[in-house]
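quick one: zinc ion bound model?
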Amino acid sequence: MLWRKVLYTGSTMTVSDCLFCKIVKGEIPARKIYEDEHSFAFLDINPVNPGHTLLLPKEHSRNILEISDETFSKIAPVLKKLSVAVKKGVRADGINIHINNEAPAGQAIFHTHFHIIPRFSNDGIRMWHGKSYKEGEEGHVAENIMAQL
Ligand code: 5GP
Ligand code: ZN
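yep, here:
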């Protein structure tokens, strides 16, 4: 079998080891919601709320920091379509689109995926708590980010 090696920051893994690649190939079962030439969506096994869906490009990439522009552009319309379908399908009041990129940001499966999370009024979920900038920090941070563009 030809195993494609992918080089990541300081480590190698085979695409064959990737759980989500295995789900796309049907080697591991999942409750499929949608599939087309480039994308695949299924229910998260541990939903934040019922209907919590994972959408992924079939082509393996580690996360949004490494995905190709071409693959990203192909999945964007599907993300919109599925968001509408999930919201209507479970009669949600809103939808969170969530992407974890790298372990410190909560990424556990290193194949790019979008969480489509149905939200309900008073479901009590608080995604994060905002902080305040220190004096002068805001401009400095903005300049540093803009210098990378
Ligand atoms: P991450 O933390 O990488 O952004 O999210 C990974 C998600 O994949 C988690 O929400 C987790 O519940 C889900 N997950 C992990 N393993 C499986 C699996 O085997 N099947 C399904 N359907 N979801 C999974
Ligand atoms: Zn993969």
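Confidence is low (pLDDT under 50) at residues 1-11.
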